[in-house]
Amino acid sequence: LLGISPQELVGKKLEDYALAPPRETADGGALAPYRTPSGKVWLETRVRTVQDAPAERVAVSRDATRRVAIQDALRHSEATVRAILDTAADGIITISETGTIDVYNRAAERMFGFTREEVIGQNVSMLMPAGTAARHDDYLDRCNRGLGGSGLMAKRELIARHKDGREFPIELAVSEVITDQTRFYTGILRDISERKATEIELRESERRFRT
Known about the structure:
Blueprint: H1 6-9, E1 23-24, E2 30-36, E3 39-50, E4 53-63, H2 65-87, E5 91-96, E6 101-104, H3 106-112, H4 116-119, H5 130-144, E7 156-161, E8 167-178, E9 183-191, H6 193-210
Antiparallel strand pairs: 1-2, 2-3, 3-4, 5-6, 5-9, 7-8, 8-9
């Protein structure tokens, strides 16, 4: 693993070859990068006692370089996705099949007034007027049973509720994603208050013109 002969290692401390302090893994191991003649290797090490000699310890290490590379790539991917979400002009909210909010971007924060910390893990009904929330539960149940149909992707106009209690119109398009074990829904939301106000003003102007 280290590219160093046993003769060279005997009598030396393994940490002398470490490039950084080890960090504990979720299952009790220690993960650290080590210097090798060709570069570096990530080792996950577990220390065990010797059954017949309690004072003795055996360190068992395995190569974790590929796993660390995959984890780093995933973290980079997640950071990229988060950056895209947080620079989107439209609100983006992802909910589980039970209606729990999992993703809530910055545009949604500005739209609803709630921070991400206030909504993650809460039911999406907190963003709706009471009457709409009751209908949404029924609609979500139909979608979970595969009865949502093509209406899932169609844009709909709904009434949403701001943190301060005021209600405002939004345009919503929902898409469904099903993985091996999970079903979730992503909503793209746009505040159409200004558009609605303009439509009302135009209708009023037409009415005055006709009279």
